Amino acid sequence: MTKQDVDPRILALCAKVTAxxxxxxxxxxxxxxxxxxxxxQTLYGYDHPPRAARDVRENGVPLETYRIRSERTGRQxxxxxxxxxxxxxxxxxxxxSAFSKKFRDALHVRYDSRDAFTGEKMERRYLQVxxxxxxxxxxxxxxxxxxLEEFMLLDASSQRAKSWxxxxxxxxxxxxxxxxxxxxxxxxxESHTHVAGQQVRRLDVEWRGDEVxxxxxxxxEAERQGIHLAILVKNQLKGSDA
Length: 242
Prior knowledge:
Low-confidence stretches: none
Oligomer: single chain
Number of helices: 11
Structural class: mainly alpha
Helix content: 40-55%
Radius of gyration: 21 Å
Largest sheet: 3 strands, antiparallel
Mean pLDDT: 86
């Protein structure tokens, strides 16, 4: 595929993208027809290639993910190319809105600077603002104070876990139904009925500071019984040692 083969609607969207990371992905695809996860890592230093591809999608440019054989290792790796222009969705052009300091301040007051999944209070610099319903599904929403409930605070670990799960969810990849996201753990952990479409209930718990000793004792007991730590905790909640 050459630049001349790219649909004009795709080219028009690409021309609007100025941010460095999505621009790198777009320019490589325009020149070579596709870009692989291996190239994003080795040529451009992006340790998490799906994040770079996601930046492109957030700017309104549809990408297709497929598998290709690496010329370097012979293994199957991921690759990205422009998708059908009919997949262009309104509300994605230009990418996410930037979060102002005023808006971030309001979120930290609303959520007491706590990670949405673990409930742990952290220094502000460790928490990132994230859409509850992925941008790729619902697009952007207004950032006025009335929409605080549409966002959450996550530390880097929580955000990576959410990104991975969402990107592998059928609703993200195909259905794009915001109502499905609204009942998912990754959007509303406090009131979820499923986890990425699976009938699962989930609770993330962390032990910090003086609590670490409690965790170590639980882990030692799980090892003594030869069971997974999560099973031990469930058994103790049920009042059983079996």
